[in-house]
């Protein structure tokens, strides 16, 4: 019975690999002169100028069959809706995508019409080697911990502005737990140039280890998540230029987990958008839940 379970697992992951590898990651390059300048506001002092950058983080749930089915039409609508928003001048300037695995998901990103689109870590992207000790509990083949990545990270950044450079880093082989180990999850950087803004802006996107969806013990997926937070922080430290503004978004998989939140804030010195927008005089907006005293844990 044990061997039949392992065989079923290997058959499943092979099917995922076949469905996920048929379409190349979405990629689109734009010419520098093609980017339109944002609206610039001049302060009463006549000197200070400000511009707004809108960023959407979007997990499109683009898993391939048999991990997920029935998403094709939803993904078509996602691409069409973003394209319609762009045509109306109401689309976010940047979209940080996660779970762009299936062919339908990749086509949806391209259909959004963004002129600059760059993918994150691919299946063969090298892993960071920060942790060598084992995670709590035993590795389980039947839970996807087979030692091989079958897909890329599923990360994509789409921008209305020119992407100057990209960098990607896959999380370590001992920094994933459960079914998450089938994807080469990691973190990516896209540095964009906004016309009229004197310096570039660094955009980071990630998708961290899930909780129940990983199908392994809480202690194991929590430890994997903590390692990924540490590795993401190291990647940002190594790739970010402190002269430039920075935005770090993605699917952090921290909803309802105080432990994950505490680990994240321990290694991430950046200001949380929710907290910044709560300050008097703040001109920013967050279109997410504000339930409770700590909405950053609820969302």
TrEMBL record:
GO function term, MF aspect, one: exonuclease activity
Presence of the UniProt keyword Signal in the record: yes
One matching Pfam family: Exo_endo_phos
First and last residue of the signal peptide: 1-24
Keywords: Endonuclease, Exonuclease, Hydrolase, Nuclease, Signal
Domain Endonuclease/exonuclease/phosphatase span(s) in chain numbering: 56-257
Coiled coil segments of this chain: none
InterPro entries: Endo/exonu/phosph_ase_sf, Endo/exonuclease/phosphatase, Sph/SMPD2-like
Keyword Hydrolase set for record: yes
GO cellular component: cytoplasm
PANTHER family: SPHINGOMYELINASE DDB_G0288017 (PTHR16320:SF1), SPHINGOMYELINASE FAMILY MEMBER (PTHR16320)
Name this polypeptide is given: Endonuclease/exonuclease/phosphatase family metal-dependent hydrolase
């Amino acid at each position: 019975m044990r061997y039949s379970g392992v065989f079923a697992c290997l058959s499943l992951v092979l099917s995922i690999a076949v469905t996920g590898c048929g379409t190349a990651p979405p990629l689109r390059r734009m010419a520098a002169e093609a980017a339109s300048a944002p609206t610039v506001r001049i302060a009463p002092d006549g000197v200070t100028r400000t511009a707004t950058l809108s960023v959407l983080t979007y997990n499109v749930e683009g898993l391939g069959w048999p991990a997920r089915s029935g998403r094709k039409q939803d993904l078509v609508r996602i691409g069409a809706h973003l394209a319609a928003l762009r045509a109306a001048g109401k689309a976010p300037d940047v979209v940080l995508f996660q779970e762009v695995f299936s062919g339908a998901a990749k086509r949806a990103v391209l259909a959004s019409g963004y002129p600059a689109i760059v993918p994150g870590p691919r299946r063969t992207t090298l892993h960071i080697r920060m942790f060598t000790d084992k995670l709590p509990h035993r590795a389980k083949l039947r839970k996807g911990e087979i030692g091989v990545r079958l897909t890329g990270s599923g990360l994509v950044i789409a921008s209305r502005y020119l992407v100057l450079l990209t960098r990607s880093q896959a999380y370590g082989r001992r920094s994933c737990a459960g079914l998450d180990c089938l994807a080469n999850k990691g973190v990516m950087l896209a540095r964009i140039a906004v016309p009229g803004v004197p310096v570039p802006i660094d955009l980071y996107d990630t998708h961290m280890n899930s909780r129940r969806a990983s199908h392994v013990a809480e202690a194991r997926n929590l430890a994997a998540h903590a390692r990924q937070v540490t590795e993401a922080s190291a990647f940002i430290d190594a790739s970010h230029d402190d002269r430039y503004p920075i935005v770090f978004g993605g699917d952090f998989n921290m909803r309802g987990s105080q432990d994950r939140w505490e680990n994240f804030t321990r290694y991430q010195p950046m200001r949380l958008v929710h907290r910044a927008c709560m300050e008097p005089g703040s001109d920013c907006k967050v279109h997410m839940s504000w339930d409770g005293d700590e909405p950053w844990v609820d969302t």
